[in-house]
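The instructor's notes for this session suggest beginning with a concrete chain rather than abstract definitions. Hand out the sequence below and ask the class to guess, before any prediction is shown, which regions might be ordered.
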Amino acid sequence: MAMLLLIAFVVFAIIGVPIGISLVMTAFTYFAAQNEMFYVQIIAPRLFGGISSFELLAIPMFILSGDLLFEGKISKSLVDLANALVGHIRGSMAIVTTVACMFFGAVSGSGPATAAAVGSVVAPEMEKSGGYDKAFTAAVITASGPLGILIPPSILMVVYGVVTSTSIGALLIAGIGPGLVFAAFLVAYEWWVCKRRGYGHVDTRFSIANVIAAAKRAIWALLIPVIILGGIYSGLFTPTEAAGVSVLYALFVGLFVLRTLNHRNLFGILLGSSMTTATVMLVVGGVSCLSWVLTREQIPEMLTEMALHTVSSPMTFMLICNVILLFAGMIENGSACILLLTPLMFPISQQYGIDPVYFGAITVANLAIGMMTPPVATTLYVAAKVVNIPFSRLVPQVIPFCFVLLAALAVLMLFPAITMTLPNLLFGGKF
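After discussion, reveal the predicted structure:
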């Protein structure tokens, strides 16, 4: 029966059925094969029950907040701050892109939004200064955009936390270490490439005064992660309430401070955020339907028993999970991968004594790499559009960045303390 479910899901996906509907249709196929069509009546309650969660409200709120900040042109101030910090280094605009994506990730929570917001600002600057190749520019944007789902707030961390009943606050803070490691590896590689190819002419010097001035201009953006994380860890509000606060703050800044938002573009922003949210929530509901079928067939228990008898150590299990997640990230978006695979992998990880917060951070780090690997490579498509180059020309430049991030992932695997030090300090190991 497990093979039937897998075949049905793959067939629906191959013929182009949206992932959320594919999940529901897979459950429907199961009922037909079992000659138990009367169970179809549970699909609607399971569909709506799966999305009826207070914690899941954080997802549309963070999506809307990111869209408001993107349309509010707040990314320009963050790019200026990054330029003030690292603009004196060889290949500075490539490094500025990565640092700015790290900053914007702290206000958006979305990889594609981060790539679009920062890429649209830095791409013209890299084209007219420093002799950067357009394909390399797009590759830098492609690789740096996924930092948006590691640096808190992170939509994927929220999804994982809801699925596994893990502390969302601990998960958000756990993304800082992996995000910094990924950024450090990218910066080192970009510096090496720019030095070897002669990209980027350094004509500025580092100045504390310039950094302070840029920080003042970016203060409204920099306050967002302070408000969100500070409010969560002070106990002032929950992660879900923090997402709502971020929306109100983004509206206030866009309407009354920067005045880049108005009644004419608000409708389009709300419509776009609603469509993105609906896509995610349909997958959540579809997974809830399929999960009922998997539980009825005791498939998670079977996989757990099989893994415990065939896999010798927690590290071997983590390596297997990494391979699965990397390939899954190539063919499906991050939220769908977490919703589909985590219910199967997470119980096994608990049997091996793997910390749920650490497992979540590694899962999201894997899916961050998946955002830049074809065929479903969201930040890669965004970067190609922003820089206006053919997809085929961009892919060869992206491949080395994939290996760089895989090396960073290996470091996170070898040194779990990078991920877990901050959560342990703030939560005392109680997640």
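Then share the key points. The CA atoms of residues 93 and 126 lie 6 Å apart. DSSP finds 22 helices and no strands in the chain.
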